[in-house]
Amino acid sequence: MADNFDVVVIGGGPGGYNAAIRAGQLGLTSACIDKRGAFGGTCLNVGCIPSKALLHASHLYDEAQHDFARLGIKATVELDLPGMMAHKTKVVGELTRGVEFLLKKAKSEAIVGEAHIDAPGKITVTLKDGTTRSITAKNIVIASGSDVMTVPGVTVDEETVVSSTGALSLKQVPKRLLVVGGGYIGLELGSVWRRLGSDVTVVEFLDRITPGLDGEIGKNFQRILAKQGMKFQLSTKVVGVEKTANGLSVTLEPAQGGAQTKIETDIVLVSIGRKAYTENLGLISVGVKLDGRGRVTTDAHYKTSVPGIWAIGDVREGAMLAHKAEDEAVACIETIAGKSGHVNYDAIPAVVYTAPEVASVGKTEEELKAAGVAYKVGKFPFTANARAKTIAQTDGFAKVIADAKTDRVLGVHILGANAGEMIAECALAIEFGASSEDIARTSHPHPTLSEAIRQAAMGVEGWTMQM
User: Fold this and answer.
1) What does DSSP say about strands 231-233 and 236-244: parallel, antiparallel, or unpaired?
2) pTM for this one?
3) 298: domain CATH number?
4) Are residues 72 and 52 in the same domain?
5) Is the peptide bond before 120 cis (omega within 30 degrees of 0)?
6) Which of 43, 170, 266, 417 is the most exposed place for a label (fewest CB within 10 A)?
7) One domain, residues 140 and 22
8) Could you list the residue range(s) of the whole structural domain that residue 44 is in?
């Protein structure tokens, strides 16, 4: 094993392993260091992948219980929670091994251990057996990802007070679940356990859920979730959790202050966001600057304040999304290799994998109003979409926002079944600088859910053709 590399990546998540692989593809010697022991990062091990396995399985269970009858199917089903968890674990194991295979294929060394940057170009790795290995590198890429944020005064024990990690491995379905935080992760995991039988209450500090989404989408999304049985307490904060003989007593307070109230629950899921993981890496001692939120400061090309040290993914500014980290990984390594790496941040989609799903790319109405940009909007409801009718999935709508003068697509927002799959078309449209008319005049197969996007694009200029 060599101890000198062109590129050493710290972190084996979507940003890290893609960076190491791309380096190998471009002929650079590389290594990827990860302390977890199973490559793939939070996303693959305790995030995106296991949560989607549970979301899909719980959705099928819920459909069989409540929706099959209206399609003419009579079924009796029962929950096998250990079996559902086993499927999740199997998927994670297969994919982590897949990442290791891809690193090997790219001739990038996978190193399991904890990395510490001693000086620019010099890293000490503490291996699993306690021994250390000294490594030198022309370039160091920090891709250490993020960690869960906690509520002051609330201790996460991953048993009764859990983070997203603990919520993926509960031993039984809690009768009552209180979710702290109305963002993507809390709503996804809350929806999993609601489908499996929990009484779910979401407590959100702000006056709306999913604050980063288009306001109209968010409002309708909450209405649908409430119709499904999820309860919401907005403009409210959690100030304490106490164990009782019957579970947990959670103390709530209005966000702006006021009289406290208490709510009883069995499990508390703390999901108020994530923070950049920069601890114990030696960043401060070597001169790498952090911003006010503890993220690594970089320029537009992912260079930090120290020559030869770069940063990508959750550890730097921007949305904490696996695919954003992947895009930055490729751009960063291509820049290191002397090529022209670039990421169009307006074309990075985001998805909430509930049922129905929510998917978004580009600007929201609120962002455009704040920037003083004149725009037009076209919308189309899934109640008028033939495919949605046939599969009994008519909640939601598609929304296309275009520049009022140029007709260039500025944002697309979808609330509905399979929104996460359909948003890629819209990201491509923004990447290519397409107009709403380009989408409107592009043939879409009939009957499909994607026709709602085309009809919404037609609606920008007022010529929607379907119901």
Assistant:
1) unpaired
2) 0.96
3) 3.50.50.60
4) yes
5) no
6) 266
7) yes
8) 4-148+275-343
